[in-house]
Design a protein that fits this description.
Blueprint lengths: L1 E6 L2 E3 L4 E2 L1 E6 L2 E7 L15 E6 L4 E4 L1 E3 L2 E2 L3 E2 L2 E2 L4 H10 L2 E9 L7 H12 L6 E7 L5 H12 L4 E5 L11 H14 L2 E5 L3 H13 L8 H4 L2 H18 L2 E4 L5 H12 L3 E7 H5 L22 H12 L5 E3 L2 E2 L3 H5 L18 H11 L5 H15 L17 E11 L18 E11 L2 E5 L2 E2 L17
This protein binds N-(aminocarbonyl)-beta-alanine (URP) and zinc ion (2 copies).
The site of one zinc ion (ZN) has 3 residues, from loops.
Length: about 475
């Protein structure tokens, strides 16, 4: 007897779409078979009836989506972004996610990186409604950071994020440590992610812009122009080549950076590029609006030329992952900087709308296939970050993490209908379709007919593996 049988849907994998039914037992996918074959014990790998049947007629059945880049309860000055670990994971689940990866940032350098990760875990525990992990994010430019690498990998955290900027906020690791971490991880099959922006350029430009009074949002994309990102991408790709490592570029935005990724991949280097929902849907015109300050995020929103280049990069396989880079500040928090970008918290809320945004602008508009959507929102994040095929797959023995999408369901976005306490959305007023209808996390319903029905604390830390090299 199965716990759940999902029938009559179209199972979408990164390779193809199939008229398959899916059966779940004890939190795992127990059987996958052609439509009708899993009922009444008449076929599939294990026959039998189910305690509960989900009729997925007209719907798309995908491996549970994974957002590998969210910031929950993220500090800024003397406060934090609006979400807590419950509300952010509820929002993620309602957006079709069954796993999120956040960051254990070493804000307090009196704790080493391992202790920072343990503290982050205890913040999630008891509150997360879906599975989670985090990238280890060191801020100390010394041997201490390098020595922590094997300990984090052993603890099931085989991915790191190093900031190449934000030296003034005490977040940056210098190039000496970055290169050593690339070498250490290369030996072990772990992955180094970077926030790639040239720190000196960021500081110099910002100081000059402030002196001239150019500190309102419309100058922000000029202050952090494409070169600021592309120079850092160029440098870290070179370091990674020398180290023989595995490099992940968080939030790639500039067409010049993309060209560097193409070259690196062409040379056979292990470089994975991610972009984010907002760089695919929005452009820098947002900074000219009255609410331009809301859209301050790093790197900045770019031109239409960059936006289309990113879609092309996804189509051609040079960009492998789309994350939300969710960071949920309210409009009031955004205004606390007095409308000046250097004093404004960076980041946009977006975890709940990644799926419909990519579906509407990508699949519906013919830019990418539905299989590519599954690849960039689920399969590749699982593979790159050491969770595949436990996650990111609909296959016997995989976790029963399943997202059922209603391609016909349309909504005009309004923050009031979303679950993050951030009281605005970058996509407010846009009509989106392709929302999650049903979300199953390890065999338990967390979303039914678009409404949250999960349990606080049901989410677990995912112990991740180093990827095969
Ligand atoms: O602007 C961005 N990406 N904000 C996310 C949080 C951070 O400060 O890294
Ligand atoms: Zn970043
Ligand atoms: Zn981020």
């Amino acid at each position: 007897m199965y716990d759940i049988l999902i029938k009559n849907g179209t199972v979408v994998t990164h390779e193809a779409s199939f008229d398959w039914d899916v059966a779940i037992r004890d939190g795992k996918t127990a059987a996958v078979g052609v439509r009708g074959s899993l009922e009444g014990g008449s076929g599939g790998s294990c026959g039998g009836a189910a305690k509960e049947v989900v009729d997925a007629s007209g719907k798309l059945v995908m491996p549970g989506l994974i957002d590998p880049h969210v910031h929950i309860h993220h500090p800024f000055k003397d406060g934090f972004s609006a979400d807590d670990f419950y509300s952010a994971t509820v929002a993620a689940a309602c957006g079709g996610d069954t796993t999120v990866l956040d960051f254990a940032i070493q804000w307090d350098q009196s704790f080493d990186l391992s202790a920072t990760a343990q503290n982050r875990n205890s913040q999630f525990e008891g509150d997360a409604v879906i599975d989670y992990s985090f990238h280890a994010c060191p801020t100390v430019s010394s041997m201490e950071t390098v020595e922590q690498v094997p300990r984090l990998i052993e603890a099931g955290i085989p991915s790191f994020k190093l900031y190449m900027t934000y030296s003034r906020q005490g977040r940056m690791c210098d190039d000496g440590v970055l290169y050593e971490v690339l070498k250490q991880t290369a030996q072990r099959g772990a992955v180094v992610g970077v926030h790639a922006e040239n720190d000196a350029m960021c500081m110099f430009n910002s100081d000059q812009f402030v002196k001239k009074g150019w500190d309102v949002p419309r100058y922000f994309p000029l202050c952090k122009g494409n070169l600021v990102e592309a120079e850092a991408v160029n440098r870290v790709i070179y370091m990674n080549r020398e180290a023989g490592g595995s490099l992940y570029l968080f939030h790639l935005t500039a067409r010049q950076s993309l060209a560097l990724v193409k070259e690196a991949k062409g040379r056979g280097e292990n470089v994975t590029a991610e972009t984010c929902t907002h760089y695919l849907l929005l452009n820098s015109d947002r900074y000219d609006r009255e609410d331009g300050v809301n859209f301050i995020c790093s790197p900045p929103l770019r031109s239409e030329e960059d936006r289309e280049a990113l879609w092309k990069g996804i189509r051609e396989g040079f960009i492998s992952v789309v994350s939300s880079d969710h960071c949920g500040f309210t409009a009031e928090m955004k205004r606390r900087g007095g409308g000046r970008f250097p004093a404004t918290p960076n980041g946009l809320p977006g975890v709940e709308l990644r799926l419909p945004a990519v579906y509407t602008e990508g699949v519906k508009k013919g830019r990418i296939s539905i299989n590519k959507l599954v690849e960039i929102l689920s399969v590749n994040p699982a593979k790159v970050f050491g969770m595949y095929p436990q996650k990111g797959a609909i296959a016997c023995g995989s976790d029963a993490d399943i997202t059922i999408v209603d391609p016909a369901k349309k909504k005009v976005v309004s923050a009031a209908g979303l679950h993050s306490p951030a009281d605005w959305s970058p996509y407010d007023g846009m009509e989106l379709c392709g929302f999650a209808d049903t979300v199953i996390s390890k065999g338990k319903f967390v979303v039914r007919e678009g409404s949250f029905c999960g349990c606080r604390g049901a989410g677990r830390f995912v112990k991740r593996m180093c990827s095969e090299r």
